[in-house]
Amino acid sequence: MMSIQDPDTCCFLSSSREHPIHLWDAYSGKVRCSYTIIDHRDEIVGPNALTFNLDGSRIYCGYKNMIKIFDLDRPGRDGQDIKTTPSRKSKEGQKGIISCLAFNPDRSGLYAAGSYSQTIGLYDESNNELCSILQGTENESIGDIIQVQFSRDGKYLFSSSRKDNYIRCWDIRNTGNILYKLERNGNTNQRLSFDLDNTGSFLVTGSLDGKMIVYDLVNLDSKGSPRKVLDRLAHDDAVSAMSIHPTLPLIASCSGQRKFKLINGDISENDQNQNITSDNSLKIWRAKGDYAWCYYSAEGEIVIHPVTNIEGEENTSKEYSFDNQGTIDISNEISLNANISMVEEQINNSNIVSDNGSDNYIMTYVKFI
Question: How many CB atoms lie within 10 A of CB 128?
Answer without folding.
Answer: 17
